[in-house]
UniProtKB/TrEMBL annotation, chain A:
Keywords: Cell membrane, Membrane, Transmembrane, Transmembrane helix, Transport
Source superkingdom: Bacteria
Protein's cellular compartments: Cell membrane
Stated family: Belongs to the binding-protein-dependent transport system permease family.
Keyword Transport among UniProt keywords: yes
The name this protein goes by in its record: Sugar ABC transporter permease
Matching SUPFAM superfamilies: MalF N-terminal region-like, MetI-like
Mode of membrane association: Multi-pass membrane protein
Domain ABC transmembrane type-1 intervals: 82-300
Transmembrane portions of the chain: 24-50, 86-107, 119-140, 167-190, 220-240, 276-299
Protein source organism: Micromonospora parastrephiae
Automatic annotation (TrEMBL), chain B:
PROSITE patterns: PROKAR_LIPOPROTEIN (PS51257)
Protein name: Extracellular solute-binding protein
Pfam assignment, any one: SBP_bac_1
UniProt xrefs under InterPro entries: Bact_solute-bd_prot1, SBP
Length: 315, 448
């Protein structure tokens, strides 16, 4: 009688078919891997090196040790732009999540017209960022903008959204809510996946609407909430196009708007790199932003272990 | 995570591309006379007959040169990427205020040999324009247009206020607040007519010069932003705006103006007196020829005409593959005869459209003289004809911010300072003190 020897644990031999499949897999993955190495990994390594140099893009980089990082820590313009960016993120992300969730809950209740409203809420996302910037510059005009005119109808003298440094950031946050359609759609999809029997069971147990929302809806969509928290936080920290268009896009606007109030971190990075030709310093700025995003993301992931429920996982 | 990677790779990707070839070769612009091969340009476009006529003249006289014009406004990213990758265009058309920075970094060539071998007469160019293209005594660019600033007055509104244009005297700073109050219309907290627009922060250097001080030294290396006379100039301008409801209302009202159509602020009676570039005269002549316009020179506090000049220039990049043809091109594009041909094309086009030709204002003084002596015909509209004469007269009173190795940072320092004051965040002296520190740090760093 023939005996079959089981492969030693941990050294399972792959069949020829498996090896062939692996080769094909690597072949199909090769374009992405090559692209990643050339367009992501390579530039990242290069920018890390450049962050330790004095580099004006025109002449060869000169190693200057940690000078760029020291300057980063002491440059008030960097601190200002970082402060503005954090301020924006701290307000934008919770607002987008709350409003999107509210809209998604409303949309879920809409019957046959849900498809129409879903499209309506998503349409603004399709608007080019540059157009959004210009549009809101007009909407936020102090004397003739639609927003202040609307406020005037209810007796409120609207603020100088684009020139008063205290109101520049709220104006930008207002603008940022224009394109929350993506988050709404994600929440709507998550809400539609919550099993109805959970609500029925909760109702039988005597749970009211708020209790059902807190004990059923929120845990069941916590994965989507966590995903949008991460994505929106990262996007907020990288805010560039709309604000650059509004306040820095051409000489006229760049001259007459308060750049302290509207300076975001990536905008300042861009100016350092291409207007002032401090590419080494800008590279150091990019790495600081990377570190900040990494820390925030890791903290969020850590917190998610306690608050996020994924179906199929033992909790 | 791909977004994180993208965020970090933003500067990195650009850096890698830009660092590909490191520095660029040295040497002076060729300036030989043999012109053939390919010639590439950046930052220029065929926007009108002034551009096409001159390019056509070059093509006609240099049939062996294949001209490749990458149309579009100058883009710093595009230019720097091209330079760093070792594949720069031969010629770049850029704002003269950028030349000092690029010259100091070595991305554009001195034109000493080019000027010598092509026998370019630098004296034909206006001195203010020459100052903007010269760093440490070396010429790096050939200037094109010369944009100057004059004072526009709405005489119709002045009459309603019981005044004449002669009574508007921007040299008398002490009287400006009373004049402004008389001319502006602010009611119910709403500004509906600007009395005097000082046009700050853009025109602060001109107000400072009127007060007897240059905000930047002639060598472009020393900022004088905290000079008490600059502080006084800024205070004067800011007060005019505060009188009209403050910066928020003032700017938002001004942002609604359309200077390029028939509904311009002059025809809509939205503004009475303001300094502005001379190009608005062309627009007014074309779109609203019946407005009651009077143009006067801006003056210093002693009443002497004064204006600030700006404009573009041609530069030859380091690493240019065809510097000889490039040199021939800049010579021809800015030569007297070429300008004259372009002006004739403009005059013909305006005539065909039934619109007046209000002249051409170039950095070539000799060309301007010929254009106005041989080509310009008074329109018959005295207001516009007088305005043309005024603009011509102030060209010789022009100054310019000189070439500086940190021009962009210097500009940002004083723009930011003015904006902080306008926003009520700082007082003029405090804001300009900070601007002085920022500009000095940038200039010192760039000078190393």
């Amino acid at each position: 009688m023939a005996t079959v020897t089981a492969p030693a644990p941990g050294r399972r031999r792959r069949t020829p078919l498996a090896r062939r499949e692996a080769r094909w897999a690597y072949l199909f993955l090769a374009p992405w891997i090559i692209g990643f190495l050339i367009f992501y990994a390579g530039p990242m390594v290069a920018s890390l090196w450049l962050s330790f140099t004095e580099y004006d893009v025109i002449n060869p980089p000169e190693y200057n040790g940690l000078d760029n990082y020291r300057e980063l820590m002491s440059d008030p313009a960097v601190a200002r732009s970082l402060g503005n960016t954090v301020y924006y993120t701290a307000l934008h992300v919770p607002l987008v999540m709350l409003i999107s969730l509210g809209l998604a809950l409303l949309l879920k209740r809409v019957g046959r017209l849900q498809g129409f409203f879903r499209t309506v809420f998503y349409l603004p996302v399709m608007t080019p960022a540059v157009a959004v910037g210009i549009l809101f510059l007009l909407l936020l005009n102090t004397q003739d903008g639609l927003i202040n005119r609307a406020l005037g109808l209810v007796g409120i003298d609207g603020p100088s959204w684009t020139t008063d440094p205290h109101w520049v950031m709220p104006g930008i946050i207002l603008m940022s809510l224009w394109s929350l359609g993506s988050t709404v759609i994600i929440y709507l999809a998550a809400l539609q996946n919550v099993p109805r029997d959970l609500y029925e069971a909760a109702s039988i147990d005597g749970a009211g609407p708020w209790a059902r929302f807190r004990a059923v809806t929120l845990p069941m969509i916590s994965g989507a909430l966590f995903f949008t928290l991460i994505v929106n936080t990262i996007a907020s920290l990288q805010m560039f196009t709309e604000v650059y268009t509004m306040y820095f896009g051409n000489r006229e606007t760049q001259n007459t708007f308060n750049s302290d109030a509207a300076s975001f971190y990536v905008i300042h990075l861009f100016q350092e790199a291409f207007q002032f030709l401090h590419m080494g310093f800008a590279s150091a700025m990019a790495w600081l932003l990377f570190a900040i995003i990494l820390v925030i993301t890791l903290a969020q992931v850590k917190l998610s272990n306690r608050f996020v429920y994924y179906e199929g996982e033992d909790q | 995570m791909s977004r994180i990677l993208r965020a970090t790779a933003f500067a990195g990707a650009l850096s890698l591309v830009l660092s590909g070839c490191g520095g660029v070769g040295g040497g002076d612009a060729g300036g030989g006379t043999a012109t053939k091969g390919t010639l590439s340009t950046m930052g220029f476009g065929f926007s009108d007959e002034i551009a096409t006529t001159r390019v056509d003249a070059f093509k006609r006289d240099h049939p062996d040169v294949e001209l490749k014009v990458t149309e579009g406004a100058f883009d710093e990213q595009q230019f720097l990427s091209a330079v760093a990758s070792g594949n720069p265009p031969d010629l770049v058309y850029m704002d003269r205020k950028l030349i000092g920075t690029y010259a100091k970094r070595g991305s554009i060539q001195p034109l000493t040999d080019c000027v010598k071998k092509q026998d370019i007469d630098l004296e034909q160019y206006r001195s203010a324009a020459r100052a903007q293209v010269t760093l440490d005594g070396t010429v790096y660019g050939i200037p094109e247009f010369s944009t100057v600033r004059v004072v526009y007055l709405n005489e119709g509104l002045l009459k309603k206020a019981g005044m004449t244009a002669d009574q508007v005297n921007l040299a008398d700073w002490a009287a400006l607040p009373a004049l402004n109050t008389k001319l502006a219309t602010v009611s119910g907290g709403r500004l509906s007519r600007i009395g005097i627009d000082p046009k700050i922060p853009e025109f602060l250097p001109m107000w400072a010069k009127a007060n007897g001080v240059d905000m930047l030294s002639a060598d472009g290396r020393t900022a004088r932003l905290d000079d008490p006379k600059v502080v006084e100039a800024l205070t004067t301008g800011v007060n005019l705006i505060q009188q009209q409801g403050g910066w928020g209302k003032f700017k938002s009202f001004r942002d609604t103006f359309d200077f390029f159509g028939a509904q311009n602020p002059l025809s809509k009676n939205q503004i009475v007196a303001w300094p502005m570039e001379e190009w608005f005269l062309n627009q007014a002549a074309k779109n609203s020829p019946n407005v009651e316009l009077v143009v006067k020179p801006f003056t210093d506090r002693q009443g002497r005409p004064l204006t600030q000049s700006a404009g573009q220039a041609w530069v030859i990049t380091k690493g240019a593959k065809n510097p000889d043809a490039a040199c021939a091109f800049v010579k021809q594009m800015t030569a007297t005869d070429t300008w004259l041909a372009a002006a004739k094309a403009r005059a013909d086009a305006r005539k065909a459209a039934g619109q007046p030709f209000t002249g051409l204002y170039t950095a070539n003084a000799e060309a301007d003289k010929k254009i106005f002596d041989e080509l310009y015909q008074p329109t018959g509209n005295k207001r516009f004809d007088d305005a043309v004469a005024t603009i011509r007269s102030v060209q010789d009173a022009a100054f310019a911010l000189p070439a500086s190795p940190a021009g962009a940072e210097f500009d940002k320092a004083y723009y930011d300072a003015v904006n902080r004051v306008l926003a009520g965040q700082e007082q003029p002296a405090q804001a300009l003190r900070r601007a002085q520190q920022e500009a000095t740090a940038a200039l010192d760093k760039a000078a190393k």
